[in-house]
Amino acid sequence: MKERGEAEDFVTPGEVLGKTSELKPGNGAYVSPQDNTVYASLAGIRSLTPPPPESADLRPTVEVKGHKAHGPVPEPGAIVLARVTKVMAKMASADIVCVGPKSVREKFTGIIRQQDVRATEIDKVEMHSSFRPGDIVKALVLSLGDARAYYLSTAKNELGVVSAESAAAGETMVPISWTEMQCPSTGQIEQRKVAKVGA
Amino acid sequence: MEAKPSVAPSSFIDQQVFPGDLVLDLSKMTNQTIKLGGGLCQDGDVISVMKAGKLRFSKPNKYWVESSHKRYVPSVGDNVLGIVVEARADNFFVDIKGPALAFLPVLAFEGGTRRNIPKFETGTLLYVRVVKANTGMNPELSCTDAMGKAAEYGPLKDGFMFESSTGLSRTLLSSPTCPVLETLGKKIAFEIAVGLNGRVWVNATSPSIIVLVANTIMQTESLSPAQQKIRVENLLQKLQ
């Protein structure tokens, strides 16, 4: 077990870490508004990080680092890569594979709703012309969603299908426009919501 | 794969073809646009068969393979007979003998609003039209035609439903009227609804007539048109 930061105390969930007047809560800590106290929410080692020099807030940040290293977890605002598993009339399900550059350690499911596929004409979106099962898509996490899945969005130019296989030949298709991809061997064009990659 | 020497398209039309047969050689047919229907695939310069069946050709340039199966593959525009499996808030789940259950939106009826949603019990037989049929997704149905009118779609009451192959369904729906139905119709009054998914519904005034019509249709599937007429007339004589 590595020790991080300066303090080496082992804290348990619910333990008082300090007052909000003295400390800012970081990962693994939270504030209870009723009594302005910072409590730990994880079991692990407490560490204090000094405040950044330019900030007006002079309080150090207290963090609790769990003893198990967890894989990355999707957070609202993160860009994720996901593989589409099911396409339905009003939404598509996808398994989140990577959060940013790191691959996840456990299974996370995301849903792309019809209104989150693109930014324009959202009620005329055909899910079948945007995604197919097996496509790899780059999406933005909108929210934690419900108990079953995160809510994802591809409503930006750089979001959407990054890689897809053609239905007939099974070869990786080449993007032609933001709505079409072409199979290199048969020449068949298929419709997808394609992500704009590169400059 | 070697191309057969001198592949002449006329030699394969209306013949039984099997997957792997090379039926057209595009290098011999220059400056033509050919439309390929189901069961055919382009492999470089030759057209090869993907499904076993009869190769058909329609002028000026359409080729396709017709086959008969007990399974139904949903395709847009087909009129099928479905059985209600479950009723949910937005859709009815309907079994149409395909790989997945189909959805029938609760509002897909003529003059359908949230206030007059039809109440179909599990097991209700419906005559419906396939609106959307994408691979991997559940098909979507409708009880209206493209204009929004009811047009015969909806529940089928009384009568008797039996299953058939998709080829027999297409024969029963062909025009001019297939010999079985024509011969039967001259002597007996009955009502029939044919689903392209291999389901046929028959209704008549008495059960013995329904049984006769159903048996006749099932027995004459593999007979030629002339034989069909003879067989139907024999069966009708037994009735009288």
UniProtKB/TrEMBL annotation, chain B:
<dbReference type="InterPro" id="IPR012340">
    <property type="entry name" value="NA-bd_OB-fold"/>
</dbReference>
<dbReference type="Pfam" id="PF15985">
    <property type="entry name" value="KH_6"/>
</dbReference>
<dbReference type="InterPro" id="IPR037319">
    <property type="entry name" value="Rrp40_S1"/>
</dbReference>
<dbReference type="InterPro" id="IPR036612">
    <property type="entry name" value="KH_dom_type_1_sf"/>
</dbReference>
<dbReference type="GO" id="GO:0000956">
    <property type="term" value="P:nuclear-transcribed mRNA catabolic process"/>
</dbReference>
<dbReference type="GO" id="GO:0071051">
    <property type="term" value="P:poly(A)-dependent snoRNA 3'-end processing"/>
</dbReference>
<dbReference type="InterPro" id="IPR004088">
    <property type="entry name" value="KH_dom_type_1"/>
</dbReference>
<dbReference type="GO" id="GO:0000177">
    <property type="term" value="C:cytoplasmic exosome (RNase complex)"/>
</dbReference>
<dbReference type="GO" id="GO:0005730">
    <property type="term" value="C:nucleolus"/>
</dbReference>
<feature type="domain" description="K Homology">
    <location>
        <begin position="159"/>
        <end position="207"/>
    </location>
</feature>
<dbReference type="InterPro" id="IPR049469">
    <property type="entry name" value="RRP40_KH-I"/>
</dbReference>
<dbReference type="GO" id="GO:0071034">
    <property type="term" value="P:CUT catabolic process"/>
</dbReference>
<dbReference type="GO" id="GO:0071035">
    <property type="term" value="P:nuclear polyadenylation-dependent rRNA catabolic process"/>
</dbReference>
<comment type="similarity">
    <text>Belongs to the RRP40 family.</text>
</comment>
<dbReference type="GO" id="GO:0034475">
    <property type="term" value="P:U4 snRNA 3'-end processing"/>
</dbReference>
<keyword id="KW-0963">Cytoplasm</keyword>
<keyword id="KW-0698">rRNA processing</keyword>
<dbReference type="GO" id="GO:0071038">
    <property type="term" value="P:TRAMP-dependent tRNA surveillance pathway"/>
</dbReference>
<dbReference type="Pfam" id="PF21262">
    <property type="entry name" value="RRP40_S1"/>
</dbReference>
<dbReference type="GO" id="GO:0000467">
    <property type="term" value="P:exonucleolytic trimming to generate mature 3'-end of 5.8S rRNA from tricistronic rRNA transcript (SSU-rRNA, 5.8S rRNA, LSU-rRNA)"/>
</dbReference>
<dbReference type="GO" id="GO:0000176">
    <property type="term" value="C:nuclear exosome (RNase complex)"/>
</dbReference>
<keyword id="KW-0539">Nucleus</keyword>
<dbReference type="InterPro" id="IPR026699">
    <property type="entry name" value="Exosome_RNA_bind1/RRP40/RRP4"/>
</dbReference>
<dbReference type="GO" id="GO:0003723">
    <property type="term" value="F:RNA binding"/>
</dbReference>
<keyword id="KW-0694">RNA-binding</keyword>
<protein>
    <recommendedName>
        <fullName>Ribosomal RNA-processing protein 40</fullName>
    </recommendedName>
</protein>
<keyword id="KW-0271">Exosome</keyword>
